[in-house]
Design a protein that fits this description.
With 298 residues, the chain is an alpha/beta fold. It contains 14 helices and nine strands. Helix 1 links the parallel strand 1 and strand 2.
C-alpha cells in the first residue's frame, strides 16, 4: 500500500524510515526538503506539497510540532482532507489538542475521510528503534484497518477510545513526565546535600518505589551527563504543558502541580534555553541549590 508522510523532522524522519524498511512505498513532504534527503536516498518519493501527497495516497500520516501546524496541513483547499479520496485515512501522530483533533475529525466526516489521532511516546531513540507507544483515538475499526501500518513504526499500539482520547492520553503522559523532572531533580539534590553519593542514590532509587522512567532511561542520557542537546526541547515541552493547561480549563480543573511545572518551563525558555533538551529545566533548581547533578559515566 502506498503511504504519504508529512513532517520528516526529528521524530517523523525515523518513523518514515521504518515504514520504508517494512516495505511500504512512501511519499514524503516537509517544508525543508533537506530534512527528507536521507529518506529519498532510501527509496521514498518526494510529494508535491500536502495536496500532492494526499492525492497520491489512500493513507497519509503527519508528525508535526504543534496543533496549528496540523490544522494548516489537514484543513483548507490544499489540505490533506480535501485532497484524499473518499474512504481515505489521515493519521495524526502529533501531540495535539483534543479540541483541534475533533475539529479535524468533523471536517473529515463531511468529506468521507477517516481520521485517527495517534500521538507517540518514546522520543527520538524510540522512533529510530521502533520502540514507541502509539496512543490511538478514533473509530476502532479504522484503527484495526491501519494497524499493520502503525505496527511498522511502533511496538505498542494502544486504543484509547473515541476521537481525541489519544491526544488527551498523550497530554496526561507528558504532564507527568515533564513535571517529574523537577521533582526528581530536587529529591536528588536533597540526598546529595545530606551526604549521599549521587551515583549511589540513582542506582538505589531506580530499583525502589521512587523509581521513574525518566530517572532510569532519560536522566542518564541527558541531565546526569550535562548533555542538553535535543532530544525533546524546552520549547516543545512547554507547548505540551500549555496543552495540558488548556485541557484542564476545558474540564473545569485548576491543577497546582501542572501550573508550577508550566512556570518552571516558562522561566527556562526565558533564559534562552528553548532549544535545549527538556531536562535543562532542572538547571534552574541546581542554581538555587548550588548543586550540579552530574555523573560523567552515567
Amino acid at each position: 500500500m502506498p503511504l504519504g508522510f508529512i513532517g520528516t523532522g526529528n521524530m517523523g524522519n525515523h518513523m518514515a524510515a521504518n515504514l520504508l524498511k517494512a516495505g511500504y512505498s512512501v511519499t514524503v513532504y516537509d517544508k525543508r526538503r533537506e530534512a527528507a534527503e536521507n529518506l529519498l536516498s532510501a527509496g521514498a518519493s518526494w510529494g508535491d506539497g500536502t495536496a500532492g501527497v494526499a492525492r497520491a495516497n489512500q493513507v497519509v500520516l503527519a508528525s508535526l510540532p504543534r496543533p496549528s501546524d496540523v490544522e494548516a496541513v489537514a484543513l483548507g483547499e490544499r489540505g490533506v482532507l480535501a485532497n484524499l479520496r473518499r474512504g481515505g485515512t489521515f493519521i495524526d501522530l502529533t501531540t495535539n489538542s483534543p479540541t483541534t483533533v475533533r475539529k479535524i475529525v468533523a471536517r473529515g466526516r463531511e468529506l468521507g475521510v477517516d481520521v485517527l489521532d495517534s500521538p507517540v511516546s518514546g522520543g527520538v531513540h524510540g522512533a529510530k528503534s521502533r520502540r514507541l507507544t502509539l496512543m490511538v483515538g478514533g473509530d476502532l475499526a479504522v484503527l484495526e484497518r491501519c494497524r499493520p501500518i502503525l505496527e511498522a513504526i511502533s511496538d505498542n499500539v494502544v486504543y484509547c477510545g473515541a476521537s481525541g482520547a489519544g491526544a488527551a492520553t498523550k497530554i496526561v503522559n507528558n504532564m507527568i513526565s515533564l513535571g517529574v523532572s523537577g521533582l526528581v531533580g530536587e529529591a536528588l539534590m536533597l540526598g546529595v546535600r545530606a551526604g549521599v553519593d549521587l551515583k549511589t542514590l540513582t542506582q538505589i532509587i531506580t530499583k525502589s518505589s521512587g523509581g521513574t522512567w525518566r530517572m532510569e532511561h532519560s536522566f542518564p542520557k541527558f541531565l546526569l551527563r550535562g548533555n542538553f542537546t535535543p532530544g525533546f526541547p524546552i520549547d516543545l515541552a512547554l507547548k505540551d504543558l500549555q496543552l495540558a493547561v488548556e485541557m484542564a480549563k476545558e474540564c473545569g480543573l485548576n491543577l497546582d502541580y501542572l501550573n508550577l511545572s508550566e512556570r518552571q518551563y516558562i522561566e527556562a525558555r526565558a533564559r534562552g534555553w528553548g532549544n535545549l533538551h527538556s531536562e535543562a529545566v532542572v538547571k534552574l533548581l541546581e542554581e538555587k541549590a548550588g548543586i550540579e547533578l552530574r555523573i560523567p559515566d552515567a
